[in-house]
Amino acid sequence: MRPLASLLILCLAGCAAAIRGPALSPAQRFGRCLKSSVDGDVFLSSEQPAAVHEEAQLWNRLYSNSTPVAFVRPATVDGVAAAVKCAYGAGVKVVPKCGGHSFMGYSARDGTLGIDLSRLNKVTVSADRRTARVQGGTKQGQLYYAVWKQAGNTTAVVGGTCPTVGVGGFLQGGGLGFFTSQFGLACDQLIGLQMIDYQGRLVTADQRQNSNLLRAACGGGGGNFGIVTEFHIRLVQVPPLLTTSQLRLAGNQTAVDFMLWFQSHVLNTASHKLAFDLRLSTTGKNVAQVQLNLRWPGREAEMRAALVALSLLGPSSPWAPVLNPKNTTFEAPWILTAVADDKSSVPKTNTPEDLLRYEEIWATRRYLKEKSYCSLEPLPAATWARLFQSLARSKSAILVHRMGPKTAFAQVAPSATAFPWRKALFCLQHLKYFDNPEEVASVIAGLKDAKDVLAPHMPGMPGYVNYIDQDISPNPLFSYYGANLGWLRQVKRQFDPEARFSTNPLSIPPAAPQ
């Protein structure tokens, strides 16, 4: 009887195994985990490669060919946490995506789980209109529109100029924009956040708890420490109307002289209320030109008075005879200045709803390469002259973001947040769009040509991490984080010790155990 009983047990076990089927592979278990626990869309590369490929498309077409193992689009914060838990159990690294604007394509990576946060886009303005809670998948256009609808024309957001950029990446990278001189970086308005850590746990950070994480989230780069699902930000009060104006001047010597005046005079005397950014380029005849992009919180007459006091305009101005107005001076509520800031080719209705035309703006995406540097010292005349000559050769332009001692940006200590270059006079953004990927070698050569002009005056090549470039210098982590890298690595060790969110060459590594 015993041999017969043993044989019967073996038969039953074999039948049960046959019913269960073959053991699942790790990839299959991972896919099953996502499908059973994420409350939203789940796309597996093994089953829906076209859908995964579509999710991996980024603003920069040059880097839209990555192959994540899966992409999910959770409907709730719990769904984000569930996806991270599945990835942790499967040993798969995680990449959050909101706007997909990482210039190096780091919003989607080979072999990772991509988490598209776009369904988490709720914005709630407080009753006193002083703060807002912003979900981590919100895009800038959605944020601006929601704040305007809930708070009106005199409560604004410190943000950037592109409505399709994700708030998560923009804030965590610092956040440069037209309000930087008056109110500081966008992340300087950050007063709290909620984040999903590497094991899928919800972490709250504010001045009372996990304040080191809040500090790191201001300039420490999106996705380094976890997935932020909510930001708590300060809003700012502005007049009912803002004035925007563009002026320009041309001439090889005139442009160089103006840049010297900008460094010595504007940076040291202009009101912090005056947004004063520049676009450097050359004409079709290779003549240097400078476009002034100005904004003032108030009426046109007030702006003109400020520009006369600055000696940019008026009878005592050395520049009045050579300045050519572009006939674009206008007064508008802040929300319509945000509409005007969008430089996409999509035709505008000049209404706040233009900020929500994500699909139309996304359809205009192109190839691009860029480099960015923050200058801690004035540049000499010869360097400005050589820089304009380089721009003529590459047919490109450089944007100059005003900083300097008079701005709110400079009133924050370099170690108070992750952004280390608070003593910068200005940051340069050298960006080139193109339509044929075969042009990339010549574009890179043009960018390098300008970099070679600037490098002798910028030791370590200080940079702005939202304009990320893995070739910025031999030590990119120093370029973006400077002396703050040490404590940022400690924060990384606390919240992502296994480097589960380290998915690109410029991810902050965790500090070694002590």
UniProtKB/TrEMBL annotation:
One of its GO terms (molecular function) is oxidoreductase activity. It holds the Pfam family BBE. Residues 64-238 form the FAD-binding PCMH-type domain. Gene3D superfamilies: 3.30.465.10, 3.40.462.20, Uridine Diphospho-n-acetylenolpyruvylglucosamine Reductase, domain 2 (3.30.43.10). Its cofactor is FAD. Keywords: FAD, Flavoprotein, Oxidoreductase, Signal. Residues 1-18 form the signal peptide. InterPro entries: BBE, FAD-bd_PCMH, FAD-bd_PCMH-like_sf, FAD-bd_PCMH_sub1, FAD-bd_PCMH_sub2, FAD-linked_Oxidoreductase, Oxid_FAD_bind_N. The keyword Translocase does not apply. SUPFAM superfamilies: FAD-binding/transporter-associated domain-like (SSF56176). Belongs to the oxygen-dependent FAD-linked oxidoreductase family. PANTHER family: BINDING OXIDOREDUCTASE, PUTATIVE (AFU_ORTHOLOGUE AFUA_1G17690)-RELATED, FAD-BINDING PCMH-TYPE DOMAIN-CONTAINING PROTEIN. This is Reticuline oxidase. The lineage of its organism: Eukaryota, Viridiplantae, Chlorophyta, core chlorophytes, Trebouxiophyceae.
